[in-house]
């Protein structure tokens, strides 16, 4: 059985395009991956343009597709098949990027090389808590400096907890440009259920995400006509993001206005075998829109969300928002054939669809002819994770996320104890009178220019009064101070003057317990939102709650304070890291502040996050583990006064060392001079002694060889040289 599990993992890893030679087997302690981030173009095979037809793609100069050889789908980034190539950012040449599939507890090493010419990049490991490695969370100017063009960076962290996660760029709009992929952490247990990965996103085939963001700020026009924002089924708003199609695992089709005719682009196909059970791991990778996921003629059994198991619930469909993950299981128990896998937006008056194919073994390679389930009084359609309480379709019922239960019975919510607990009200909204920036409690996030996790004294942008007052918005680096193992209860809202948008809020560093969700007031006939939930008091200087910025909210009933909110689930609350905050409503969550770090918390709608709708959780900062040596830092020029002071001290220290190494004092000079004179004197004496000895020896030799004959004196006329004959 274990062998079969391993084979499944290897097959998925291979098909997902992981390019490393190292395969993350179950017995490996360390798994190494290599990412190269670069730009590519859609609908190009190398330098050859392609076009879609009949579910295939062909070279631009093919005239007869019936006789031409199709180009393999894996050699082209097709997206929705729009023939004008669009710029994308990819990892290892793939869109989406390679999937990472590992086992719980393994050490993960990812070497990232930025081969883009004009953009820095970071990689966030969405849903992983990064216990003891907060500097590996991958948020630019929060936990690390961006990886600049040409630079490399190595991430090292532990694969924990188990479940469905994903990785993506956290820099600008790169996530929806293509820098993302699945990150699956498997349990070390046997299973016969095969995993299938589904990543769904919205897509604009004309503009990249940076252009979308600029248009959201400055205006969106169709020709000379100003574009109106699309609305949700509850009459709330989506942002000014124009999409043309939806993609599943990077593939989709562009439909005409009639939602029937399309361009015949290739789709993602999931091959199944009759009688087998399959686990779909669905990841919401989109920029803005929620999607309702279903499979024709198959009941979905939802078993997990954001990596945490749920008590199984059968449903016709479920809603997934950007950043969320849902796992569901199906049994291939229908007649052999092809069945549509559908993802539709919740737009009012517009129908956008994502298509994929569930293909049974031996079925023909053709498009399905199936239809969605008919919702009747006898067989109603159950939709999980609605962002509202009333689904405006006949015989369709909503199940909100707080109605689900954790699958385990030993993971209760942290206890709210006086003196060891705190409660925060956070309003995620666009309040304003003449300008409407994204904010939390009216605080528009001011991004640092350093890595504040490791350079805390080089950045300061506090949220001060009166600039950040009850009915004002301001720009500052908004941070919530938590820690000490306290129980933290948060009430996430979208209320007051800045309401009208539901926000999927993602928390880094933790998975929170979902205790309760409160919704606005809806029209029972149309499902349209009519007013805010009365459980919350927005307060503020204005008397009309609809005009309040709701920057300083509290419970309307003071008896609910200090953790005494009624009708909350404390024993088996589901856990998540991303939750939809319904417009006009609220979500009550709890965490235990036991993971020191500097954690981002933000709306996962890319445009909203880029517009400043985020804050930091400053958790037990003095207890944050030391980062690896030589971890990169960053700063602007001229440097901050603190850095200038550090630079000055370092320069002074270096100069002092250099002076100490090279300087010769007056005392040292005399000592050295004396030593030199002494040495020279000794050498002189030694030379004189040697000369004296040599002279003496020479005189002695001359006396030995002088002849004295017949009493003649040495001064006679004799030979005074060496007499060679006598030697």
Automatic annotation (TrEMBL):
Gene3D superfamilies: Cupredoxins - blue copper proteins. SUPFAM superfamilies: Cupredoxins. GO terms for cellular component: plasma membrane. InterPro entries: Cu-oxidase-like_N, Cu-oxidase_2nd, Cu-oxidase_C, Cu-oxidase_fam, Cu_oxidase_Cu_BS, Cupredoxin. Residues 86-189, 240-362, 464-618 form the Plastocyanin-like domain. The chain crosses the membrane at residues 669-695. PROSITE patterns: MULTICOPPER_OXIDASE2 (PS00080). One of its GO terms (molecular function) is oxidoreductase activity. The keyword Nucleotidyltransferase does not apply. One of its GO terms (biological process) is iron ion transport. Residues 1-21 form the signal peptide. Pfam families: Cu-oxidase, Cu-oxidase_2, Cu-oxidase_3. Keywords: Copper, Membrane, Metal-binding, Oxidoreductase, Signal, Transmembrane, Transmembrane helix. It comes from the Eukaryota. Belongs to the multicopper oxidase family. This is Laccase. It comes from Dreissena polymorpha (Zebra mussel). The lineage of its organism: Eukaryota, Metazoa, Spiralia, Lophotrochozoa, Mollusca.
């Amino acid at each position: 059985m274990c062998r079969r599990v391993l084979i499944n993992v290897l097959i998925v890893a291979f098909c997902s395009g992981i390019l490393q030679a190292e395969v993350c087997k179950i017995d490996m302690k360390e798994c190494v991956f290599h990412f190269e981030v670069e730009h590519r173009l859609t609908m190009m095979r190398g330098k050859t343009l392609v076009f879609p037809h009949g579910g295939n793609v062909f070279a631009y100069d093919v005239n007869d597709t019936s006789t031409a050889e199709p180009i393999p789908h894996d050699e082209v980034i097709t997206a929705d098949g729009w023939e004008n190539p669009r710029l994308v950012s990819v990892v290892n040449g793939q869109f989406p990027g390679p999937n990472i599939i590992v086992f719980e507890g393994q050490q993960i090493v990812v070497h990232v090389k930025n081969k883009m010419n004009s953009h820095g990049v970071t990689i966030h490991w969405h849903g992983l808590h990064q216990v003891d490695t907060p500097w590996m969370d991958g948020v630019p100017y929060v936990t690390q400096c961006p990886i600049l063009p040409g630079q490399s960076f190595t991430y090292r962290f532990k694969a924990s907890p188990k479940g469905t996660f994903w990785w993506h760029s956290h820099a600008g709009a790169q996530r929806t440009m293509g820098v993302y992929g699945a990150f699956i952490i498997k349990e070390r247990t046997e299973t016969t259920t095969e995993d299938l990965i589904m990543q769904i996103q919205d897509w604009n085939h004309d503009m990249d995400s940076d252009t979308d963001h600029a248009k959201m700020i400055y205006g969106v026009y169709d020709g000379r006509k100003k574009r109106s924002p699309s609305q949700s089924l509850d009459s709330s708003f989506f942002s000014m993001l124009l999409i043309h199609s939806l993609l599943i695992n990077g593939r989709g089709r562009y439909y005409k206005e009639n939602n029937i005719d399309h361009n015949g682009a290739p789709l993602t196909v999931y091959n199944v075998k009759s009688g087998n059970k399959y686990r779909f791991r669905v990841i919401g990778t989109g920029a803005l829109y929620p999607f309702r996921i279903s499979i024709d003629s198959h009941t979905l059994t939802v078993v997990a969300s954001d990596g945490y198991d749920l008590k199984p619930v059968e449903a016709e469909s479920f809603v997934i928002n950007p950043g969320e993950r849902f796992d569901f299981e199906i049994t291939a128990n229908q007649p052999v054939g092809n069945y549509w896998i559908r993802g539709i937006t919740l737009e009012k008056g517009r129908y956008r669809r994502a298509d994929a194919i569930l293909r049974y073994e031996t079925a023909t390679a053709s498009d399905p002819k199936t239809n969605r389930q008919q919702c009747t009084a006898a067989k109603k359609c159950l939709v999980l994770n609605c962002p509202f309480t009333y689904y405006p379709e006949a015989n369709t019922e909503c199940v909100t996320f707080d109605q689900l239960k954790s699958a385990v019975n030993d993971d209760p919510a942290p206890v709210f104890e006086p003196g060891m607990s705190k409660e925060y009200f956070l309003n995620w909204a666009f309040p304003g009178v003449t300008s409407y920036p994204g904010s939390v409690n009216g605080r528009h996030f001011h991004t640092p220019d350093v890595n504040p996790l490791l350079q805390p004294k080089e950045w300061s942008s506090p949220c001060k009064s009166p600039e950040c007052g009850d009915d004002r918005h301001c720009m500052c680096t908004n941070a919530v101070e938590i820690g000490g193992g306290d129980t933290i209860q948060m009430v996430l809202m979208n209320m007051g003057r800045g309401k009208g948008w539901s926000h999927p809020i993602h928390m880094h560093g933790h998975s929170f317990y979902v205790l309760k969700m409160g919704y606005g007031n809806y029209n029972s006939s149309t499902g349209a939102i009519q007013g805010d939930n009365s459980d919350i008091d927005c307060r503020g200087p204005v008397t009309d709650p609809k005009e309040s910025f709701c920057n300083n909210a509290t419970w309307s009933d003071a008896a609910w304070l200090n953790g005494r909110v009624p009708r909350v689930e404390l024993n088996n609350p589901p856990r998540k890291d991303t939750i939809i905050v319904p417009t006009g409503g609220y979500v009550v969550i709890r965490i235990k502040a036991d993971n020191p770090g500097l954690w981002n918390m933000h709306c996962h709608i890319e445009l909203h996050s880029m517009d400043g709708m985020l804050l930091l959780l400053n958790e037990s900062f003095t207890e944050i583990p030391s980062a690896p040596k030589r971890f990169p830092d960053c700063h602007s020029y001229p440097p901050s006064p603190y850095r200038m002071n550090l630079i000055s001290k370092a320069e002074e220290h270096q100069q002092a060392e250099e002076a100490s190494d090279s300087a010769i004092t007056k005392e040292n000079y005399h000592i050295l001079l004396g030593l030199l004179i002494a040495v020279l004197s000794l050498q002189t004496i030694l030379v004189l002694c040697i000369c004296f000895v040599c002279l003496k020896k020479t005189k002695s030799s001359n006396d030995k060889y002088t002849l004295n004959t017949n009493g003649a004196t040495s001064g006679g006329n004799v030979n005074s040289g060496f007499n060679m004959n006598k030697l």
